[in-house]
Amino acid sequence: MQPVATTFFFYFLSGLTLLSGVFVIIRKNPVHSALALIFGLLAQAGLYLMLYAPFVAGVQIILYAGGIMVLFLFVIMLVNIERSQREEQFNKQWVVGLLAAVALGALFVVVYVKGKALFPYRIAQPIESSNTQQIGVMLYGQYMFAFEIASLLLLVAIIGAVVMAKKRI
Amino acid sequence: MLNYITSYLSSNTTPGQAGNVFWATVYILVVFGGISVAVMAMNWLERKALAHFQIRLGPMRVGPHGLLQPIADAIKLMTKEDIIPAEADKFVFWIAPLIILCASFAVYIVVPFGPTHAITDLNIGILFMLGVSSLSVLGVVMAGWASNSHYPLIGALRSSAQMVSYEVAMGMAVVSAVLMTSLHGLGPYGVGVGTSGTGTLSMIGIVQAQQEQHVWFLFKFFPLGFIAFGIFAIAMVAETNRAPFDLPEAESELTAGFHTEYSGLRWSLFMLGEYAAMIAVSSIAVTLWLGGWYRPFPNTLTGDTWDLVFSLFPALTFLTLAAIAFVGVRRMPKHPYFRVQTIGLAGFGAVLGLIGLILFAPPVRDRIQDIFWFVAKVAGFMYLYIWYRATFPRYRFDQLMKVGWKVLLPIGIGVLILTAILGVVL
After folding, report:
1. ipTM given for this complex
2. Residue B169 and residue B231 in contact, taking contact as beta carbons nearer than 8 Å
3. Cβ contacts (< 8 Å) between B95 and chain A: which residues?
4. Is B146 part of any domain?
5. Residue B288 in contact with residue B174, Cβ under 8 Å?
6. How far apart are CA B415 and CA B407, in angstroms?
7. Looking at residues B36-40, what average pLDDT do you find?
């Protein structure tokens, strides 16, 4: 089946991501920044869908937007932000920041112009109906070792969190 | 253009898979309207059923037997004053109910009412449903925080902690059911070589796997499927903050939890989102364990006569409801003040009877089967929700968290491991 209105959706989703990124840094209120980040992550999931990666999009929504951002919001709401909001925002290094951002932007432009041959002309269109199955087969077959190492890392993190948070018995 | 619209009618896939935007929009509007009507009906049914459980009558005045009560409630909520607390964050206060509403309604994209009666059939169907329904936690947290008042904040933090904890238990139960889709063999213990056995996350694929394995996943590897279903049934009640897990919105403890400061239309958006989420997680349970849209016994009671018998069920259901309405008409008081209500109830009964008669016609009968059985099973779950609310006392918050993490999660992991072992061995 042919995708519909690809151009519109691409510009809409990437525009939403950029706008959300800008709002994350601009807003004084940290809850507004977190909210903007949530919108950016959801737009990112849409972009993953456009790249024919539905599993990654689904996992992005579950873990990133639905888990990690909830964690962010918990911390923001349990810590008293009021005082820091009333303090004066200081950005006395804005010249250096601007120069660094311009340099990074120039680097991106140079890479894009000079290295046009590196970007594929058409994106790969793997079959959508077997996406999860293929990921499962690769993850548990070819990349089993990396998978187990990542699980072990997560286990270490969980144990560390429990040890740091528990009361003394 | 006309070709675009009519070309879909001859295909047998969902509109999303056929890429037909027009029909996908039509389906979306139909599902949205259906769910909204279902929420209103659920509101009425809850008040009447709770009342009957408590040996009283419930709303009787507004329409005949309170049938117009939801409409009166909607009008009341729409005309109430919209209060925003002082020092509340206006943007977050405004957007929190919208997030809950959008998250609760977006899951209906993949709910399968039939083999092709879904808006679309994503490859990651069940993953999408779980993920998007977990976005409503964000709405709850933001609603509590934006109200700038301590009861909503405590209620929101408790509610979101509860929802996040029970999502883990739900995930374990769902993984057990998805594991069962990749098995071979027929019947509850998987003997014989019956099926192809490729696992799938798509909702339509899960129901079709149950059909190919000739058993509802409820009875697969009995009692493992049953325990997984039990875990999901308990976790889904906790996920939607319904009794007996409704401490965050308990009126005696926390005034009304995270939606205390919301009034009028905003509060009704919360209620709409909550009931829609209830129907959504019930559809997950029906799809994963109860065989989706298939009629009871599609493989043991086969043949044309049994098909005919079961295809009469939708019409008979509506005729039974019409009969109940007419019994109500007979029992109405014969006072002139009750004339309008009597006429109204008789009219309602006549409409139900007419729908029942239409459902007897063969072309309608064949097409309405799948949707009827799916909706009937989900309706059973809705009645169970109301029954739980009427009978069970509320869990205290620490008991609630203990059940979520220390009871349901270990049992879920155990069921998953045993299912995997049985799947490999048998």
Report:
1. 0.84
2. yes
3. 35
4. yes
5. yes
6. 12
7. 94
Residues of chain A short of pLDDT 50, as ranges, are none
Of B123, B128, B137, the CB nearest to A131: B123
Q: Cis omega (within 30 of 0) on the bond before B64?
A: no
pTM: 0.90
Number of domains in chain B: 1
Model confidence at B316: pLDDT above 80: yes
Tokens of residue B380, six digits: 């059973």
Distance from CA of B172 to the nearest CA of A (A): 14
CB contact, 8 Å: A59 with chain B?
yes
CA gap B169, B281 in Å, rounded: 14
Q: Contact B100/B270 with Cβ under 8 angstroms?
A: yes
Give strand pairing partners of B186: B191
Q: Is residue B403 included in any domain, yes or no?
A: yes
Rounded-to-integer distance, Cα A38 and Cα B252, Å: 34
- In this structure, is residue B342 part of a structural domain? no
Which of A6, A27, A37, A61 to probe by mutation at the B interface, max B CB count within 10 Å? A61
Q: Does A132 touch chain B (CB under 8 A)?
A: yes
Give tens-digit pLDDT for B269-306: 999 999 999 999 999 999 999 988 998 888 888 888 88
Domain assignment of residue B251, given as a range: 18-312+360-425
* Secondary structure (DSSP) of B236-268: HHHHTT-TTS-GGG-HHHHTTGGGTT--THHHH
Helices and strands in chain A: count of H runs, count of E runs: 8, 0
Spatial CA neighbour of B240 closest among B251, B230, B249, B231: B249
Contact status of B231 with chain A (Cβ, < 8 Å): no
What's the token pair of residue B306?
Answer: 């049994």
Instruction: Tell me whether residues B18 and A57 touch, CB distance under 8 A.
Output: no
Average pLDDT over chain B reads 88
Cα dihedral sign for A145, A133, B131, B282?
Answer: negative
Closest CA to B176 of B132, B229, B121: B229
User: Quick one: DSSP state of residue A61?
Assistant: I
Gyration radius of chain A over CA positions: 21
Cα separation of B262 and B345, whole Å? 35
Q: Does CATH number 1.20.120.1200 belong to domain A1-83?
A: yes
Return the structure tokens found at B138.
Answer: 């964000």
Reference B329, options B316, B318, B314, B340; nearest CA is B340
B234: confidence class by pLDDT, cuts 50, 70, 90: very high
Helix (H, G, I), strand (E, B) or coil at B20: coil
**Are A130 and B123 inside 8 Å of each other by CB?**
yes
Asked, for residue B197, whether it belongs to a domain, the answer is yes
A100: distance to nearest CA of chain B, Å?
A: 33
Contact present, B369 and B311 (Cβ < 8 Å): yes
